[in-house]
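Lecture 7, part B: from sequences to assemblies.

Below are the input chains for today's worked example.
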Amino acid sequence: MLMTTESTKQEQLHPCNAYTDLKRRFRDVGRLEAIGEILGRDFLTAMPDGAYRSRLNQIAYLYKRVHQDIVNKDIRRLLDKALTHEDNHSTDWDDWDRANLRAMASVYDEHSLIDDDLMEYNAKVANEGRRCHRNALENHDWDSAREHLRNVVDVERRIAEKKLKARGGEDLYDALLQDYCPGYSHSTIDKWFNQLEGSIKGLIPEVMAFQAQKPEPIQLADSYPVDSQMWLNEEMLALFGFDFERGGLYQTGHNPVEGGTPDDTRLVIKNVDTSNFLDSLKSAMHEAGHGLYIQGLPRKSWRYQPVAADLGSAMQESQALLVEMLIGRTEEFFEFLSPRLEGLFKAMHDPTLHPENLCAIKTHVRPTVDRKRADEVTYFLHILLRYRLERDLIEGRIQVEQLPEMWTESSYELLGVSPQDHGEGILQDVHWFVAKFGYFPSYTIGHMLATQFYQTMRQDLPDFYTLIRTGNFQPITAWLNKYVHSRGRLLGPHELMRDITGKEASPEFLMAHLRERYLREEIKI
Amino acid sequence: MLMTTESTKQEQLHPCNAYTDLKRRFRDVGRLEAIGEILGRDFLTAMPDGAYRSRLNQIAYLYKRVHQDIVNKDIRRLLDKALTHEDNHSTDWDDWDRANLRAMASVYDEHSLIDDDLMEYNAKVANEGRRCHRNALENHDWDSAREHLRNVVDVERRIAEKKLKARGGEDLYDALLQDYCPGYSHSTIDKWFNQLEGSIKGLIPEVMAFQAQKPEPIQLADSYPVDSQMWLNEEMLALFGFDFERGGLYQTGHNPVEGGTPDDTRLVIKNVDTSNFLDSLKSAMHEAGHGLYIQGLPRKSWRYQPVAADLGSAMQESQALLVEMLIGRTEEFFEFLSPRLEGLFKAMHDPTLHPENLCAIKTHVRPTVDRKRADEVTYFLHILLRYRLERDLIEGRIQVEQLPEMWTESSYELLGVSPQDHGEGILQDVHWFVAKFGYFPSYTIGHMLATQFYQTMRQDLPDFYTLIRTGNFQPITAWLNKYVHSRGRLLGPHELMRDITGKEASPEFLMAHLRERYLREEIKI
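Predicted structure of the full complex, as structure tokens:
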């Protein structure tokens, strides 16, 4: 009766009927989740303000339904049947089907740990947080923010307790971490972060001494029209091969958000600041990395299936940081950009736009209070600050009330600078407001993975830096697509890393990259 | 657990538990339907093109779920219990609760007649039709359009058969009519339309003779910037009291669509034509009428409940035409508009913008092939043409293949003019493409109802024409809100008409209005 769909792996009949049935059910779950993504995008970009409360309830209710569709006896029974079938008729199962079944089971497990009311409430709190954060930031209003955060921490602790009880783990925080950085345990992260803390604290004075030999960069001091900036941002996305037929780049009054689906990838950056085009470019490049990953997932054959999803936040951030920080801060990148900027901003031979100067601005190392504008070397310390605070909050060792004070102390201790107000401190990030406890380590793990991929990619692609210098980014995207994007969840994060680089993930690669870029040392791993 | 909601009639506990449960279930159905509205709006205004096919399937699937949520044994059982409770404990039920229960039962009955796959397929075909229509119109491509229409007629006939069988009615077409014009039977409409056909065919030569005494209006012949037109359109909406906090006005490459919910009423008109601001203004005024009705529905207390819905397409069109045609074509309206247009379009003393000239343009009677630009007198003949063709298609008396020929014949017979190509004929309207068979009569019934309301309103509001001349439209909206919008489905369409005007609906009021406006005759009903 329904229109014929091209035969895809999603629609194909499998010898195991239970698995065929599961594919159909997960396709429908995927459709509801895709609808949720559209609601989220609309919420940020087009929704009239007065729709706010009703929309929150609609989104929350939709996620409750998704949850109910996943957690029910039918699914459990079908999974058991399919898993048995896989054991008994292993030749009927190819690698993709196996991976898909594993991914289905893991989606089920994740959802089965919490009940649908908690799911609904969590979705509501998370969506509410975005506006709460914006208002608190605008009004420097820690009091109202505190109430919301207390609420969030309470919900997240309850979720963590349920997860820890059901699937085990090292501690409450570990239970949350697993949603964002699957496969990386709390103790592994702790070990890596301790190692990085020592190395980076040692590196900073070396870099400062090294860069003291060079003149200070000239800071941007012009007005850069919004339209020109957005044209540049969109063109950069296009050069990297982002498909505007299946997505776009938008501005919002809120913080940026990646997301969407491979069919509809609308990236959102914060409203453009006319005094600094490098900020919106950075944000667009970051979202481009996410967007290319999303658009490159195995869409045609596996559209809504769990195997067609990404490998979680850490892998997502690796793609975003590879584009934004690794490629987007090379000298060659600015050599490509600079003459075009002179034309775009009508500033012939403007010394601030010289490639060396732009590169100097973007690679200048100086501890600041602001994570989003932090340099690549001190960036980790911003993550470490947040990681420790959120870990202690979830473990119940500190209370929400103590956050501003502890933030200030910690900032001074780690970075040597203190925020002047809540906006520069506790209110700068949206993550906790939208219930993303356990997300922050994704940035540093992503940075680690990115540098490790980057090293292999440079060996694989001949004339790598010529590609960048000439604005020919598509071979880079093709490489990422082949090894990462198009594989969805065919491999786990560890298998993927071994497959691509022949090595385990390790902070060594990040350190080697930083020493190469900031001290001109050769890489010796 | 969930955030406290202000106590509304929707959330209140009722002595009848089954009814309380029904209210909760219909609230959730309403949330999914509201999500469907957002998807529809996004589809027309923001969705990237490549998302088209997956979006169709998502929308269709969502409506399948809505259908399943309504048609199930629980709902049937709860309805029976509640209806029994209402009989046995009538004092527990106030008018709103009674009306809500009736509306619930009628939603259930309507849905229970068709199965969920048909529902899904219908939603898909309907959404597909919008693009199919746009492409056929752009490429003058009747061949591809014909295939789609065959498909739609086939589905609609099957739906009509099921509905006719289950709930009775006069014939297949009557079964479809009931969805758009509840309460007006096929034979009633036939009777009215025959009566109108005779009267209007007689009226046209009288009007032509009458208007021949006046000079021909000067046609618009300038370029009117899109931004200025949209500013004017939005300001007109605002003057009528449309709440931009809960909605907005957008342009689309497709045909205009009303819709949304009282919380999020995004009106969509076709991309502005710079050569004629009166077209986009007309469209905006028409959508304003719909939008005010939607925004004025009993939102706070009854948000998603069936009693808070509108009274169907005929009543919707009455509100749209009252704003667009009745108020928007008065001399006083153009007296208000004219000096502002001179400023807006920078054309001081431009004779085309004189109030008399604008009014003459908009009230000039001349049969044309184009419904959307038809004058108020010949408008009915356009509806009659479509009404007869769609009735005969559904009854199986004619085939889709014959449509272009029959359209041309019918147009010549009724209007004395023939389309020069498919775009001027069979392809001009989107309705059939989106499966709206049975909708067209709503325009004429709406026009009838509008003139009947209008007559009472003019008696009720002192200095009615002064209000219009001074751009003070909000008392008019307040009147409509009090008597129509805010009552949702508290009364049926017939009860409502009697309550407001003390009379039954009848085509006499429309005829009297036309004779008053176009022949300067006094109204004597």
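Note for the exam: The interface with chain B takes residues 1-3, 28, 31-32, 34-35, 38-39, 42, 45-51, 53-55, 57-58, 61-62, 65, 117-118, 120-121, 124, 243-248, 261, 263-266, 303 of chain A (CB under 8 Å). Keep this in mind when comparing with the next example.
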